[in-house]
Every structure is written in C-alpha cells, then in structure tokens.
Amino acid sequence: MCGIVGAVAERPVNKILVEGLKRLEYRGYDSAGVALLDGNTLNTVKAVGKVVNLENALDEAGVKGTTGIAHTRWATHGGVTKANAHPHISNSEIALVHNGIIENHASLREALKGDGYEFLSDTDTEVMVHLIHQLRQQHTTLLASVQAAVKQFDGAFGTVVFDKANDNEIIVARSGSPLVIGLGLGENFIASDQLALLPVTRTFIYLEEGDVARITRNSVEIFDVDGNAVEREVIESNITQDASGKGEYRHYMLKEIYEQPLAVRNTLEGRLNDDRVAIDAFGESAQQIFKDVKHVQIIACGTSYHSGMVARYWLEQFAGVSCNVEIASEFRYRQSFVHENSLLVTISQSGETADTLAALRLAKEQGYMGSMTICNVPGSSLVRESDLAFMTKAGAEIGVASTKAFTTQLVGLLMLTASIAQEKGLDQSTIVNAIKLLPAKLEETLLLADGIADLAEEFADKHHSLFLGRGSQYPIAMEGALKLKEISYIHAEAYAAGELKHGPLALIDADMPIIVVAPNNELLEKLKSNVEEVRARGGIIYVFADKDSHFESDETMRVINVNHVDDVIAPVVYTIPLQLLSYYVAVIKGTDVDQPRNLAKSVTVE
Length: 606
Prior knowledge:
Blueprint: E1 3-8, H1 14-23, E2 31-38, E3 41-48, H2 51-61, E4 67-73, E5 88-90, E6 94-102, H3 105-114, H4 126-136, H5 142-150, E7 155-163, E8 170-175, E9 180-183, E10 188-191, E11 203-206, E12 212-215, E13 220-223, E14 229-230, E15 234-236, H6 252-258, H7 260-268, E16 272-273, E17 276-277, H8 286-292, E18 295-300, H9 302-319, E19 322-327, H10 328-331, E20 342-348, H11 354-363, E21 370-375, H12 381-385, E22 388-391, H13 404-423, H14 429-446, H15 449-456, E23 464-469, H16 473-488, E24 491-496, E25 513-518, H17 524-535, E26 540-546, E27 557-562, H18 570-589
C-alpha cells in the first residue's frame, strides 16, 4: 500500500516522480502529493484522488525542482484530504513522505505540541517530520537527525526526507516497509517498488531492515541499524514486463487472467526433469531440509492464505507430512507450538506483506528447522530473509485482485509437495505428469469466458452470494468469494458444502445465488446431495462442473461445463472460471475493477 518515489538530479524531476507514481497506482491509494526543491525554494502540491489530478495541479502550479519526493497515500490515520496527503512539511524547511504506521504517534504528538509545533494534519506521519526538524537543531547533519529520530519511532516505516538547505541530498530510512535505491549517472533515485523507476534505471540496491541511507546525485552511503557504514548488493534488474499497458484488454485484471497459461509455463520452465521436480528451484539446502521435514507450517494473508489451504490437502495426501495453515496476523499474536522438524513456509505475492514478514521473524526465534517463501518479487524482504525461496515468475501483477499470482503460487506449492515426496522416496510422478498439462488445461478453460460473461448478467441486481466446494475445492470457493466481493462489492461467503445444514441453509432463497465448484472426483456424489439441499429450498444454483459429472441446466440451475482434468490440478483449473465470473460481474456493476475501493495491492502495514 502507498507508493514512494524520490529523486536527486541535475535535471528537473517532476515528470520522473509523476510517472513513478503512475506505475505504483496498482498498489491502491486515495490521494497523492509531491514536494520539489529548486535551489532553496520548497514547493508542495497535493491532490485528492488519482495521480492525474496531481499531475494537473502540478502543471497548473508551474513549479519544478531537481530534488523531489512524491507519494500516493492509502489512508490509515485521518481521512482522505489534501491536508492529510503526503508530503508533510515542518517549518517550511523539511519535507517527508512515509509508508507504514508510527504506533507511538500520540505520545510524540503531545510532546511536540508542548514544544510549540503546530500540526496541520490528522496523520501519524506528521510527527516524524516535526521530530526530525526538532533534532535538526541539535545535530550537524540531516543524516544524524534522521538516525536519532528513527530510534524514537515504534512501528513500521519506509521514509524519505529532504532539507531545503541542501538541494543535493535526500535521506531515507527503512524499518518494516520496503525501499529500493535506483542508481543513475549524475542522479539517483528512491522508491518503494522498483517498477516505479524502470524508465530511468535498471540498477538497484535494496535496503535492509534498519538501514538509513544518504543519497546525493553522485553517491550513495548506507548505514545499518547500529550506524555502521555498510555495502549492500547492487542488482541489475531483468524485468521485461511492467505496468506499461493493458494491450488489447479493457482492464489489467482481464489481461492477467489471460496471462495465466504463460505465467504457469514460466513458473515451470527449467524446473521439471522428466518425472521429477528440480529441487534446486527451492535453494541450495532444500534437499536436506525436505528429506528431514515432518511438518509444514504455512503462514500467509488473503489470497495467499487460500493457496496455502489448498496446499494442506496436497502435502498431507501426497507427501505424507502434516500441515497447518494460519493467517499471519493471527499467528504472530498467539503462543504456538512448533512441531519436530517443522518447516515454515510463507506465501506472498509482493514479499513485503507486513504481517507475513513479522511472522517469519517471530518464527526464526521459535526453533523451526528452516524457512521458505513462495514469492513473485526477487530481492523482496521475504526472499532475502528466508532460508529457501521459490520464485513464481508470474511477472508484474497490476490488478489489485490477485489472479496469476495465485495460480502460480498453487503451482509452486504443488511442486513443493512433489519435491518433499520424492526426497522421502514416495511416488510423485502423478503430480509431475499432471503439472506438465496445466498450461494447456488453463488455455482450454479460458475458452469458457463468453458463456461466463452471459451468466454474469444474472448477477446485476444481486447483493449477496454463497460459494460452495468440498475437499481441496473448498479453499477455491473461498478464493472465488473473495474475488467477487473485492471487485464487484457483492457480499460473498464460502462454505465447505457439507456445512450447509449447520447454518447456511437459513440464507437460501431465490435472491441468493449459489456458486458451486464440482470436479469429477470421489466427493462428487456428496456434493450433488448438497446441491439438492439447496434446490429443495428454492435456491438458484450456478455450477462449474466437470463435463462428465452429469449436471443438467434447468430453471433452477445453470451449468458451465469444464473439461475433465486430473484431480490434483483441479484447484488450479477451477480457479479460472471463478476469476472470470467476478470480473464480468464487476464490469456489469460498473466498479473500478483494477483499483477497487478501500483496497491496496501490497499491504505493508498491520
């Protein structure tokens, strides 16, 4: 959530900052702002709403600068107003932008008010800029002032600061919220995501936890949490796909749905050797860890949590290891039990999800035999801080509602299952052979789009819905419900179909559409009985069914037939129709598909 872009250069940086913010719009935000330094003149321009509003306001103001910071805000403390938008300024001298939450902001605010500082916003961020300004009177450099200030902040922050007394310097600090430095010739940059800087550089340095850095046009100095000068690895990015365009598609979400066969091919490329998974895809020490593992603890949030729930079925059935799956924000705040030879697996599209990252750091203190992440962003915090990492290679996902990140996570988890099975001497050829067929099966399933678009018309006046699945399809039903509520704003719940009689049947009527995922497996007959329970109570049912499962459309039931697939990959395949359904319903409802209200792509605060 939120986006940061900063630059220190010899040329005007206005357009660089605005373009960077546009490339971060997918993260979710509600206001935007920029602070520019031209010589010793500091100008700030802010706007509520889209970045284009800021761009227009900036053009109208006619200001420019060779040093600047820009921000897109997702409101946490204080409403959506210009006053609450970043950057925040102290005494017309110091400007600051911030991602994260300062948890002790109330006590800091009271102390600063007592010292005569006037607050113009309701944000937690404004205490940061005033405290740095106060400390600036006590220290000879802005760097030293920021280093002293961060010791007083409780919470998470990625922050960028400049002082109008020096137009060739910005100071950045990272604690729990990601920042990446972009290197140029006679100019340097900072951002919360490297995608923002791809038009100006392909050379990056990722800041580590606790780092503070001083960036000028010609130098970068980095200091660790103890104030020691350190070197961080310089990385050349090979990203070829970014937020540059939707191509022929109306929305990024639809584009990314159709990219899933290719994304899965990329995930599999070079990682299958005949009937085995190439175990080095997980890291150098994976073989020994997988051989010894007896239990897997999965930690994730949102869509990634659903992929972990599917993996529990796979790991216990095919690899013979027990598995728990927990929401990261719950795991980190309870006393948990660590099983013998337990592997911690985190799942995150961005690799920066705050609760998941905090859970990993907590788990490292609890005696897990190792940690592994399944992630889409090389160089992210989860990747750097885990013992093992499986990169999904899905490419940049711009739509807030995750699609290809989810399916490639499932593929990674299925490959993890096969790898553990093969290291324990178990037959995993069924998994590998099924995985090889996935890209083609996904392409076949995308051909259902026109029929699903027609079906979506029936949801135009609906306000509630119920999703049902059994076995490994239950988490897929949960993911389908999440997608529908995220982008169409229809209230949606998911249940294991066998739970209908334990309460949800009370909701059934002709105004409550029931969406069912029904592959042809050993649970099919049980599922058919659950469907009949709904029909007997007047419910209208929409079934995504294996074409050989013998569901028939009538006045109470609409059936979309899906080509038969092996049960092990069915969760991946049956995800596609539910994504398409949510997309077409959202289009009919007229919502902002790619940037749904109140949501953010990368959640870097609790």
